[in-house]
């Protein structure tokens, strides 16, 4: 379905606002392949809002991960984005396309502003925090970087129970996806000077930053590194289990989308295990064939749910 039909279905009529949502859709299609595929299973009127939420998160994340600017420059840019976001939320208007789509989505779906404040706080942490001594320390970061993403999207998805009942599972699913990314992207994060795995849990297997860097340089994870990563996969799967009941709490038309994302991200952990957790030299990727194998049955369920 074209962007125009989605915007028509969502009731977005102002030309500038339609351009803003189109920009967010392009960002999602370009950078979030698995996420974008899952959004195709949403009803047409839901998709622009999800693209807007993704577009804003992508924009900020790209600022943080820019290898060509220093911490001070990034901090100033985040501060500027945060200021423009707060002004746009107060005034209901902005000339920035991503913020325009985001603010419209926040107002349409009554998304709590605190979720965006928490997100920006975690993004600022990325400028100064490069290691996490314990999982409790990491939890503070993943609340803002991942749990709140699930909480932002939840009002768009809709629920079959009171929203507050579904919120813990929605937050857990965001965290599960983030923990999966931490494992899959461990090599790339090391290149940026960050380790998102709890130091004390790595140390239990005789692993520290230096050992990870050596494995990255050699292009091969040793036995201890692989054992430590298997333990992190175990942790991530436990979080997926906590998130699972939340799928049944969603509005029926939204369940196929979230179930597809759940399965595709879970498949990343399968691939990590199939590689014997030797993922420091390469990035495991779910194949297009596998994506289609998961998405096509979900598409049939989504069509049935909309018709029902």
**Count of runs of 4 or more consecutive helical residues:** 15
Poorly predicted sequence stretches spanning 5 or more consecutive residues: 289-308
What series of H and E elements makes up the topology?
HHHHHHHHHHHHHHH
The largest pleated sheet is described as: none
> Which structural class do the helices and strands define?
mainly alpha
Query: Judging from the principal axes of the Cα atoms, what is the shape?
Result: globular
Could you tell me the number of beta strands?
0
Rg: 19 Å
Question: Strand fraction band?
Answer: under 5%
Q: Mean pLDDT, rounded to whole units?
A: 89
Helix content range:
over 70%
Report how far apart the termini are: 20 Å
Molecular structure report:
It is a single chain. This protein is mostly helical and 308 residues long. The chain has 15 helices and no strands. The protein has helices spanning 3-10, 15-31, 33-39, 47-65, 71-91, 97-109, 114-125, 135-157, 163-184, 186-191, 199-203, 209-218, 223-247, 255-274, 288-307. Helix 2 packs across helix 3 (33-39), helix 4 (47-65) packs parallel to helix 7 (114-125) and helix 8 (135-157) crosses helix 9. The longest helix has 25 residues, at 223-247. It starts with a helix and ends with a helix.
């Amino acid at each position: 379905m074209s962007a125009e039909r989605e915007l028509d279905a969502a009731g977005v009529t102002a030309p500038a606002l339609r351009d803003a949502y189109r920009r967010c859709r392009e960002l999602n299609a370009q950078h979030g392949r698995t996420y974008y595929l899952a959004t195709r299973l949403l009803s047409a009127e839901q998709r622009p809002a999800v693209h807007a939420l993704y577009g804003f998160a992508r924009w900020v994340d790209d600022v943080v991960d820019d290898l060509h600017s220093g911490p001070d420059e990034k901090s100033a840019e985040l501060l500027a984005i945060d200021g423009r976001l707060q002004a746009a939320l107060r005034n209901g208007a902005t000339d920035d396309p991503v913020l325009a789509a985001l603010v419209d989505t926040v107002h349409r779906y009554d998304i709590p502003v605190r979720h965006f404040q928490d997100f920006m706080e975690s993004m600022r942490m990325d400028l100064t925090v490069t290691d996490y001594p314990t999982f409790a320390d990491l939890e503070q970061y993943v609340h803002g970087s991942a749990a709140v993403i699930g909480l932002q999207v939840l009002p768009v998805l809709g629920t079959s129970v009171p929203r507050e009942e579904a919120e813990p599972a929605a937050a857990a699913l965001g965290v599960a996806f983030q923990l999966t990314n931490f494992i899959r992207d461990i090599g790339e994060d090391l290149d940026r000077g960050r380790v998102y795995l709890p130091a004390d849990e790595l140390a239990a297997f005789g692993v520290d930053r230096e050992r990870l860097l050596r494995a990255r340089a050699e292009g091969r994870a040793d036995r201890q590194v692989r054992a430590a990563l298997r333990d992190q996969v175990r942790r991530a799967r436990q979080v997926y289990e906590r998130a699972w009941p939340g799928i049944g709490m969603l509005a029926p038309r939204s369940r196929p989308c979230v179930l597809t994302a759940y399965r595709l991200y879970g498949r990343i952990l399968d691939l990590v295990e199939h590689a014997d957790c030797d993922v420091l030299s390469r990035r495991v990727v779910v194949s297009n064939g596998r994506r289609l194998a998961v998405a096509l049955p979900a598409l049939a369920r989504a069509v049935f749910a909309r018709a029902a």
